[in-house]
Amino acid sequence: MTPVHRLDGSNAGGQFLRTALGLSVVRNESIRIENVRGDRSTPGLRHQHLAVLETIAEICDADVSGDGVGSETIEFDPDLPTNGRRGGRSDRSSPRRTDRRGSLDGGDYAVDIGTAGSITLLFDALVPLASVLESPLSVTVSGGTDVKWSPPIDYTRYVKLPLLRTFGLSVACEVDRRGFYPDGGGRATLHLGPSRFDRIELLERGPLEGIRLYSTEAATLSDRDVAHRQAEGALERLESNLGAAVDADRDGDGSVLEPIERRETTAGSDCPGTAIVLRLDYATGAVGFGALGERGTPAERVGELAADAALRHLTGAAPVDRHLADQLLVVLAIAGGRIRIPSGTDHVKASCDLLEAVGGAVEREQDGRGTVVSVTPLDG
């Protein structure tokens, strides 16, 4: 296998790997990634990154090397059919193929990441595949639904996926069981349908239209009313500060809004744990902010942490939160568009560098209200 693209992950983490794999499938082009997760204290593939690699490889019948825990170099060659035929790896020696875009059969798959590996990050890696699906794809994953350094499952369900639906993604997410750190044991299913992404234009957010709140506790914590206390902590912090924060938002009217949706749930889980997600609705979309419970941290404080993140966002002008800023770039590479992001984080820079490395045209411009990132579709 002669890779079409040689990529360097020395200044990036797991998101670089996930984005690279997704684009490899969408473009039907082989890649070689060296220095995988090179800027992490433990570089190379960890269990959850290996699960992403193995899952995508199985779905698209890819040829893979370097698929082991600790591996710092991988090669990945998808095998999507083109014009009704399998790609055929014998014609893949040329590094300049422009007509390899193929189609992907769906199906039903089951994945066990093990312990509390992030389910939501694996789901993130699968979203781009919808653009080349010929039939529905369902992937059931066992692992962690609400764990550190990854979006809580309610952020995925109630913030990211609803926003992507407005731009053409056919998707649903079912949660069978919650899984908290360190035991995991959660289970959720992502359903993707064949999708055609619309161009994304997210430059203005309009006025704040409503607040939604999702607070969850493991069943073993229900006698302490943890979910309710988290929600109360978040709402009290918002009520005390929302007026001033919205005044700082050029499009806001300064009003303090009551939640238009409030869900407090008790969930079965293999271990104690809690999570809270706040969603802010705007005319053009939604943003989300989450926090996880930790031993020794009062439930009210957990809610306050999520509220504080929301309040910080309200002082700016971006219509997407800092997590979506990074995760939307792979969709921009497929559909094209422009987004205003809160700031140019290291994650965003690494993703932009990746898009440029595979032939994308990316522009970043500071305009006093954030950073505007413009991406020309890779096939455009």
TrEMBL record:
Keyword field contains Zinc: no
Domain RNA 3'-terminal phosphate cyclase insert, first and last residues per copy: 203-314
Region (Disordered): 70-107
Domain RNA 3'-terminal phosphate cyclase: 12-358
EC number of this enzyme: 6.5.1.4
Biological processes per GO annotation: RNA processing
Coiled-coil intervals: none
Compartments (UniProt record): Cytoplasm
Enzymatic class: ligase
InterPro entries in alphabetical order: RNA3'-term_phos_cycl_insert, RNA3'_phos_cyclase_dom, RNA3'_phos_cyclase_dom_sf, RNA3'_term_phos_cyc, RNA3'_term_phos_cyc_type_1, RNA3'P_cycl/enolpyr_Trfase_a/b, RPTC_insert
UniProt keyword annotations, A-Z: ATP-binding, Cytoplasm, Ligase, Nucleotide-binding
Reaction equation(s) it catalyzes: a 3'-end 3'-phospho-ribonucleotide-RNA + ATP = a 3'-end 2',3'-cyclophospho-ribonucleotide-RNA + AMP + diphosphate
Superkingdom, taxonomy of origin: Archaea
Sequence ranges of Basic and acidic residues compositional bias: 88-103
Binding positions for ATP per the UniProt entry: 124, 323-327
Entries under SUPFAM superfamilies matching the protein: EPT/RTPC-like, RNA 3'-terminal phosphate cyclase, RPTC, insert domain
Active site, per annotation: 347
Molecular functions per Gene Ontology: ATP binding; RNA-3'-phosphate cyclase activity
Gene Ontology CC entries for this record: cytoplasm
HAMAP family: RTC
Functional summary from the UniProt entry: Catalyzes the conversion of 3'-phosphate to a 2',3'-cyclic phosphodiester at the end of RNA. The mechanism of action of the enzyme occurs in 3 steps: (A) adenylation of the enzyme by ATP; (B) transfer of adenylate to an RNA-N3'P to produce RNA-N3'PP5'A; (C) and attack of the adjacent 2'-hydroxyl on the 3'-phosphorus in the diester linkage to produce the cyclic end product. The biological role of this enzyme is unknown but it is likely to function in some aspects of cellular RNA processing.
Family: Belongs to the RNA 3'-terminal cyclase family. Type 1 subfamily.
Protein name stated in the entry: RNA 3'-terminal phosphate cyclase
